[in-house]
Amino acid sequence: MQEQIACFFNDYYISLGLSETVAKYLNMLTLLVISLIVIYCIDRIIRTVLRAVSVRIANHTSSPFDDLLLANKVPRNIAHIIPLIIALKLIPIIFIDFNFIEIPIRKILQVLFIVLTLWIVRSLLHTLEDYFKTLPRLRDKPIDSYIQVFMIFAWVAGFIAAIAVFSSVSIWKFVTGFGAASAIILLIFKDTILGFVASIQVSINDMVRIGDWITFEKYGADGDVVEINLATVKVQNFDNTITTIPTYALISDSFKNWRGMTNSDGRRIKRHLMVKQESIKYLTLKEVEHLKGITIISDYLTGMQTKINQYNSHNNINKSLLLNGRNLTNIGVFRKYIQTYLENHSAINKDMLLMARQLQPTTQGVPLEIYAFSKDKRWENYEYVMSDIFDHLLAAVSYFDLEIFELPNSTSFKA
Predict the structure, then answer these.
(1) Contact, 365 vs 274, CB < 8 A?
(2) pLDDT digit string (tens) for 102-120?
(3) Contact in structure between 143 and 133 (CB atoms under 8 Å)
(4) 203-259, CATH topology level
(5) Torsion angles phi and psi, residue 350, rounded to 5
């Protein structure tokens, strides 16, 4: 049957008086043109029908998966399979008298079939990637890394199959010989392999998710993770620049992930005031009475003064010198003022750690540190809350006869 079809135009051209050689060439060209037209028409028809059916199905389902299949052109790529199979079947008919042309053309079509298969796999993997990103539990996972790994394996397999087709060597023999070159492959794909291993460890240990705020000083990154790939992690810094970090650096170097803070009930405020040591002193009764005018520590001062007087009287303390017995100090009262002020501040989370503490004295003075947590974790609001607190405390220092340390300037030397 195939020979009859192949020789139909050949006999016709010979009947026209053409030589047998010319008739064979014209026969081949005629069959080639007709075959290309038929294959093109079949391809168009299958694509149109398959797309129409796919759209109809997608419109009647609530799942986004079929919509993503259409968006990634999966039906369109699958539609090319049948025309390509038909082309492979027609080759012996078209080139019946030209075996030297048939063999390379067949090999080219077989390689195209491999490429088409890879293209379909790629479309399916991209569909899965987009679908997984719509699932809340997988949205922050490094899906891109896994898709890229599968694609690398697919392209390697396709490359091996293509070479096996062109060289007419069995795939298994080719793979056996290919194993000897594995050391070179490992060298070439070193970063890819490291990235793949790092992606798995990052995912299993839940070290980084898309959307996390991380700080990586070594690479100058300070912002939100926007993409996790096989080889790189992209971080959009707060100045809108993009920093690219090798994925394996996440497990080999130290970085800071702020997710714990984001998921907690507050953002830490840890800042101190540096008080000049020479301004620290005991408070006299007159000074204590004056400070009782500060509402939020009035009850504290009254209670403490009563306890101190009872202790000093009971122990017959000589109060001609303030040093003797128990006394209030201006820095101690100020520390209590800070503590009480924070406890009454509406922006501070009272359910988390809250304290005003004195740190070890330094050559610049005595640090009074605030350790508390802001309810609002948004950066701009957090900075506003912290600035508001320290604006108040810096202005309040002078009411306790305390001074804040600062290095001498030109005005100091003039004075």
Answers:
(1) yes
(2) 777 888 888 888 888 888 8
(3) yes
(4) SH3 type barrels. (2.30.30)
(5) -75, -15
